[in-house]
Every structure is written in C-alpha cells, then in structure tokens.
Amino acid sequence: MKVLLLGFGAVGQAFARLIERRRADLYARHALSPSLVGVVDSRGAAADPRGLDVEALLEAKRRGGTVAALAAHGVHGVSVEAFIVESEAQVVVEATPTSVAAPGAALARLKAAFRGGKHVVCVNKGPLAVAFPALLELARHNRVAFRFSGTVGGGTPVLALAQECVRGDRVLSARAVLNGTTNFILWRMDRHGEDYDAALAEAVRLGYAETDPSADVDGIDSATKLVILANGVLGHPCVLGDVAVTGIRGVTREHVLAAREQGQVVRLVAELDGGLSVAPREIPADSPLHVPANLNALSLTLETGGEVALVGRGAGGPETATAILRDLIDIWHAIGSPR
Hints:
alpha/beta; Dihydrodipicolinate Reductase, domain 2
C-alpha cells in the first residue's frame, strides 16, 4: 500500500518508525506492506514512487530541518494540494498540527485527496471540528474511505468502542473526559491541594501542557473531540459552534476541596445528552470518568447494555501513530486485501 504522509513532526516520525518496526508482522498478519512514497513537512517534501527510506528521512529531518534535505528525493517550494493529486499514493495520512482557529489549509488538503480518489487517515482535528458533515459527504461522493480514530483518545480506541456499541444497541447518552491536560490539572488540584496556577505550571513543566494551553483549558480541544465522536459514531451531525463550552480557568481549589468532602471530584466532562456541552462537572468518586493524571475516559449509556466505559492514555506521538496504523489496516481490509 502506497502512503503519502502529510506532517513529519512527533506524530509523523513516530508513524514512520512504527511501520518500519512492524513491517514483518504487518505482512504476516495482514499481507500489508506499507510504503511511504511521499512525505511533506512545513518546509518541503520528499518523494519516491518506489518508497522512501525511513532512516534516511529521519536523518534528513534531523540534519536539515526538513525532509526536502533528502538527497535525490527532496523537493522545496511544493504546492501541497498539487503534490497530493500527482502522488501515486493510495492513502493520504493527514498528520499536521491541529489548528481549530485556522483549519483552511488542512481542509484544502483533505478535499484534494478525496477528489483525487485517495483514501484518507486524519489525525488533525481542525477540519473535522468545523466541517465534519461536509467531509463525510465528500468522501462518500468520491467513494473513498475516511478514517480518523486518532483524533479522539490517541492510541486508545475510543471511536472503535463507540462504533461497536452502536452496531447492536442505541446510545442514550455519552460522557467523556477527553483532554489529558485539563484532567491532570484538576487531578493535581484534588490530590495535592494545589490552586489552578500551580497545577498548570506543573503540567507545563512535565510536558502535559503547551506554553499556551488555551485550547485545552478553555475546553476547545474537548469540544472538538466531542464533535468528532458525535458525527463519526453517534449519528449526530454538528460542528464546533453547536457545543456549549466552559473551560476550567474558573475552577478554584476551594471548589475542588468542597466537592471532595461530598464524595465528588471535579472533571472537565464532554457530554452528549440531547445537547452538546463541555464544562467542569462534579462527578461521583466511583465514576468511570474519575481517572488520574492525564488519562482519558469514555462512558456510554446504552438502551439495552447499560453503561460501558473505556479508560486509556490520550494523545502522544507513539500513541497516535498506533491509531494511524489501526486505520490503515482497516482501510487495507476494506478495499480488498489478498486475505
């Protein structure tokens, strides 16, 4: 299977390493032999229809700051949409950084892939947050596969679990903790009695939060993931503007400690129960959403099956790379692998 990888940061590099490490296993178990025929980063691209050498790509990126530095195969000043259309790839992997505020470039790349008849694996949440129903329709119209499991939960198969549940049952409501940064902050406030600023500083120090954590602490990241869950699995067409969002900046140490005295904990909960909302909620200490540190959790209430929950690690380079590979295998079997 020929793959075009868009984005060669932490996630893209982790994915390239993963397919090399798993190559023998992928062929033995799935008759799948993925080949990177193109890679694009913010400063250029590299291409070879016979497949690029992963170690050489990583070295070019390390030494030259871009895959365009790869001898004989590097290209500077590319038009990414044209590069997508002209590529021999069967699958495009969109792994560039998420920007909900400015998703236009990523949207254009996805549209170019669909219109070029290429299947897509996307881990960039931005275009899905603002145009998910339209993207699903465009993929259907062009008869290509569109997978996005890495956008919610990283390597933890949150969307896969939800999809399996809805196959034979009806989801009455969904509640989830979908952002590891805010969960870590609220967990520190509860466990260590810290105020918001101290807990945030510790999250930044440990690498759980960006220097500008606005998308996380203001609830935008959780709302984006809720939109993806609602559209992609639960059959609830929506965009980011449909979600009522409240972040955690206003949560005080006193609020957290008062909740603890009542046998409750405060968590940033994304909820689909009639409407769509993200807000700090007090939940029982024995709730499946009461997870420590930077973990994520999903709880579905089913009409027949009752409550089903999943807990796991959220986003990260290696974790998200496993989700990309999971989607790639899914597409491989869907389009008719030899086995």
